[in-house]
Amino acid sequence: MVDYLTLFNLGMLFFLGGMLVVAITAFGSITMTHKEKRQLAEADAQRLSNELANFKSPGHDHAQKVGWRRKRLLNKPEYGLLCELEALVKRAPGGHRLFAQVSYGAFLEATSRRDLEETRKAAEHALIRKRADFLIIDRYGNPAVVLEYQGDGHYRGNAHDRDQAKRVACHAAGIPFVEVPAAGLTPGQRIDLEQRLGLRPALAAE
User: How many Cβ atoms from other residues are within 10 Å of residue 171's Cβ?
Assistant: First the structure.
């Protein structure tokens, strides 16, 4: 005679066993999902760490992987202007010095109210990537005059607009900003520069 109670108990045992297998499988699937997420997070963290290390790198590890060649610092007209400016500065009695291709970030820094900090950072970042063609400093190392050579191709495209940030910053800092045309210093610019260098008396105010 069939023992229905035993069959029922066996059925329940198989059912509970199946449910246990399903539960274990599901738990294992969830565990693997979390593990994969953790592995992805660790990979992202390592990638960011590598990028930060490259950003902080002194550069020699990258520099040795590529080739290098010299490039000209000044073109012929710029070199001619350099020689003219050197002659003027050499005659100046005030101990002035002349430099070429100087980063604006080397002699200018932005200031602002605390609520404009982000704007200050953006303005400073934009300007430090630009270079002054020529910079004259006084005997104390302070910037005295900035000269930008506007060659024949200077006014092509938006070059004039790109220089506006230089003009604004120098004007705000109280540094004379001289834009030299392609032909070289104008007579008026030469006189003004000689006065600033102490080579001739300043014109009396009317």
Answer: 11
104, 166 contact by CB (below 8 A): yes
Q: Where are the domains of the chain?
A: 4-63, 76-196
Please indicate, yes or no, whether the overall pTM of this predicted structure exceeds 0.70: no
Give CA torsion, residues 46, 51, 52, 53, to 10 deg.
90
For 134-167, what is each residue's pLDDT tens digit? Answer: 999 999 999 999 999 998 755 555 566 678 999 9
| Residue 156 φ then ψ, to 5° | -80, 145
What is the dihedral angle through the alpha carbons of 88, 89, 94, 99, rounded to the nearest 10 degrees?
A: 150
Contact at 8 Å (CB) between 151 and 181? no
d(CA 44, CA 53): 14
**What is the amino acid identity at position 44?**
D
